[in-house]
Amino acid sequence: MLYTTNTFVPYNHSIEEADVVFLGVPFSSTSVSETSQYGPLIVRESLRLIEDWDGKNNVFQKICDAGDLEVVPGSYELTAERLRDTIKDIRATNPNAFLIFVGGEHLISLPIVEELRPKTIVQLDAHADLRPEFLGLKHSHVTWAYHASNISRIIQLGVRSWSKEDDLSRAEQVKDITTIQKLNGPIHLTVDMDVFDPPYVKTGLPEPGGLRPEQVFAIIDSICKYNIGNIKSVDIVEIADRSLPSNTGFLAAQIIKRVLSKRKE
Fold first, then answer.
1. At the topology level of CATH, where does 20-264 sit?
2. In terms of CB atoms within 10 Å, which end of the chain has fewer, N or C?
């Protein structure tokens, strides 16, 4: 039996046999704030330390930690091409695997969506990210949702900061989670860690008035309750920690654990 130490699971399954594939995407080149390139490392180390038992199941079974994408610093276009190609290869090898991506900045969500083409994106975020361009850039951490809206329906929760350039008509801002029940699948869930109130996380662009952990977990529970079979992929982005242990990393790890736990119910 092969045991590894460079992943968060004691036994790293192959992509072919895994139920879940984890991929780090340490790309952080368009953000105007602190780097998020250490997000995959922070989350892996946090996943090592949290308990794998949810009261009924070991939720970290049959996982392939595929490592980190080899990003091209400063080039979104080349990084996006590599990410799309990697997802395509994973899907060709195992079309049924549940996919977990950890960034990196929020722009990594766009090539994920371009390749997976979900019917619905559920976005937990402090910012709308619906600008058509930013500082002359078409592709930026604050434009990804604008371009993703050409592919998928976007439902946003936790948004509390906008620019006049944001095209809010391209997404649905939801205040009451009880109004979200059955959604068209496949569904991609994207969590920007700045959805949390600033005291709970270290992230690039914190916004006051955010959500408490129990509120975020309740949102995820509610979405999973009605849609878990249709949620096919998750990304978690904008972790700006550079040290361990990390409160931000632990919250991200608990989000992953929670979604995987709901998949086993």
1. Arginase; Chain A (3.40.800)
2. N
